[in-house]
Hints:
This protein is mainly alpha-helical and 239 residues long. The protein is built from 10 helices and 3 strands, in the order βββαααααααααα. It has a 3-stranded antiparallel beta sheet with strand order 1-2-3, covered by helices on one side. A hairpin with a 6-residue loop joins β1 (3-5) and β2 (12-18). α2 packs antiparallel against α3, α3 (82-96) crosses α6 and α7 (173-198) runs antiparallel to α9. The chain is elongated, with a radius of gyration of 35 Å.
Amino acid sequence: MAVYKQRRSNKWWYKFNWNGQTIRESTKQANKRVAEQMEAAHKTSLAKGEVGIRSKQPAPTLKAFCEDSFLPFVRSTSAAEANTIRFYENSVANLTAFPKLANLPLDQINAEVVAFFVARRQLDTVQVSTINRDLATLRRMLHLAVEWGKVTTLPPRIRLLPGENHRERVLSVEEETAYLDAARQIGNNIENAYNQALTGVRAVQRGEEPKRPDSYLLGDVTTILFDCGLRPEECLRLN
């Protein structure tokens, strides 16, 4: 260990060479043992940097990550989508209103903390769909934190709550009629093309009669879907 004292000073300094460069610093310590430990720590830090090893940076808290990284990212990438920005700002406000979650470093967020957040939101009689949107936002933030190198650990698996109400699109009578008319017109076009093929060169001169298509299949299937309230895959299984 190359520690020494300067004249008229009780503080220890260290001095060593690293890759042809002289390193000289004061330890600001009067204890020689501590000064030697500081010199060793400095050498270790230089060695780690030389082989690409870096000290682990502390992960930001959820609140800091939202304010410094996530919300600026949303506002820049969705600048033309005001509703999207408002959606994420509202979800972030809900998440950061829970101090136990907001002040926790990202790499310490686990399923237990998320469960506490869900339980707290349920006490406020919040709809399942609202809680799920907050959970989906939290899930996206944690994945972005890993992608951006803010944390090195895998995020916890965040599951959405069951029982969420879903909106289903119901066609009006006018829309059903327009769809059936379009399906009928498609069938007419297929039938006309088939009739023309019957008088073509391949059918007349070569004897290659075209296979008759099921021209109005789309209209038939659509009628079954409308009348029986079936999903397309349910109708296909009837075959």
